[in-house]
Structure formats: C-alpha cells, structure tokens
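Deliverable D5.2: sample structural annotation.
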Amino acid sequence: MRIAASMNTLVIAFGALACATAMAQPYPAKPVRILVPFVAGGTSDIVARAIGQKLNESGYTTLVENRPGANGSVAAEALAKSPADGYTIMVGSIGVFSINMSLYRNPRYDVVKDFDAISVAIRTPNVLITPPSFPANDLKEFIAYAKRNPGKISYGSSGSGSSDHLSAELFKQQTGTFGVHIPYRGGAAAQTDIMAGNIEASFQNFGTVVPFIRAGKMKALAVTSASRMPQLPNVPTVIESGLKGFEVTSWQAVAAPKGVPRDILAKLNADIVRGLRTADLSQRFADQGFEIVANSPEQAGGFFRSEIERWGKVVKASGATVD
C-alpha cells in the first residue's frame, strides 16, 4: 500500500512538473492555426499561406484552415470564440474587418470588441474583368453594352459586401447601369466562372487575376487604383476612363481574439512583419500587384476603425444588406 501511494504521489508530481514545463515553454509551444474566411485560391488564402510559410521559417508550425461562409462571418465568429492565447489568428479582407459591420443588421462578431489587430498585411486595387469573348474591349464600350442590355449583365463577387461587390455597386450608381449580382464564397470561385464564361463581369482583386489576364484567360477593362498598375501598364484606370473619383483599394489584415497577452501579440506582429518584408516575398507580391503595408497593431487597429466608418457610409448609400 505504501509503495502504491508512493507511486501515485510520484505520478502526480511528474504530471505537475510536465504541466509546469509546458506552461514555461516559450511561445509558440504548439501549432498556430491560421483561419481563412474564404475558399482556397483567393487573396486572403494567398496572403495567409505566404504568412504561414514565413512563420514556419521563423520556428512556428502553422496550419491554414479555410472556413468560408457568410462573407467571412463564419471564420470571424470562430476567431472571436477562440482562446486568446495566440494559437488562433485570422487573415481576412476589408469585407471581414470593416464592411460586414454595416452590411449585417446583427453581425455575429464585433471587430473592435472581439479582435486584437496584429497588422494590415497588403493592399491592392480591384480590376474589372470579363471573359475574353465579351463584346467590349474598354470601359466605355462596357458601359454602352450595359445600357443597351439593362439588367442582363451577370456580375460576380467574392461575397455580398466584399470590396469587389461594393465596387460594382458604386459603378452602377455612377453609370446608371444595372446587372444581376451573383455572390460567391470567395474570389477564386468567381474567377473560375469568368474564365468559363458563366458570368460576364466582376471587379476582382488585382493581385489574384494578373496571371490569368496575362495568359489571355480573362480580359481586363480598367483598374480601380488612382494610377495605372505597372504589372499591366496598358490597362487604364476607371478614373481616366471617365468616372471621376472612382478609387477602391482592397486590403488583407491579420487579427487575433481580443485579449492576447501583449508580449505574444508583439511577437506575432514582429515575426509577420519581418516575413512580409523579406526580399523574396516582397518581390513575389509586387509582381502580383500587392503593396505590402506591414504596420503595427496600434496602426492596424486605428485603420480598422476608420475603414468601418468609411464603408459604413458607402453601404448605407448603396442600400446593400444581407439580413
């Protein structure tokens, strides 16, 4: 009996020691899960996997998990409910971190209350694309075609309330045209249907479609940046094509559940920023049309709040809503 008691005491002691050792291990002591609110292949997914790769090179083990649905709300709600220990983060879009707050009457998460911003990763304009066979070769021809065929153009987006959806809404307001909106569960799905000719138009993130445009699999009519993009210098801006003030920039950012310890948040920011600024990734993103931002948690948090206010006004003016 004494031997058994001694053995039990020893087991408990070893268990306590193992627990204390695990708690004392420096972060990260286990895999970090990176949630992506959209299907694989879109901008959020591309950025998340690039960040994951760079974190792996810095000693992390990362697992990228695509959880599409409800314009990113499914993944965002999951992030909000995750432990604030630094082992679950999310790479999401302008829609997830700003537009959804006004698009939904009762959003299932609150960006300001539920998240700690880590960094804005990149930004990129949108580009109006069509199938190669579409009977318009520039924006003026596209507008003329849309006016001759009111309500007949089908335009896709990566989800209701996404930057590409609101780009189309803004375009309709300024041109007096109208079309049938088809929301997808991410930009990659909309791009696939453009190339297949199943839809006629879409404002997609510039960085994700450059290879397809160069390969002749889709046609680019105009970009939503203030000036032409060096990756496609022959594609004019929407502004120079006649629509004054039409500038839309999409962006991707990284966030964690609210309450992550400050030292862990600072480490995540430092390692992610360092990875984004490495020469190979900087060049790869530049070739795709992504501009690296890589700012601090404080700057990212302030940017979230300003974008929520800005896009709230746009959503209200457009009348767009989901529920």
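Annotation notes: Residues 2-24 form the longest helix (23 residues). The mean pLDDT is 90.
The annotation will be released with the project's public dataset once the embargo ends.
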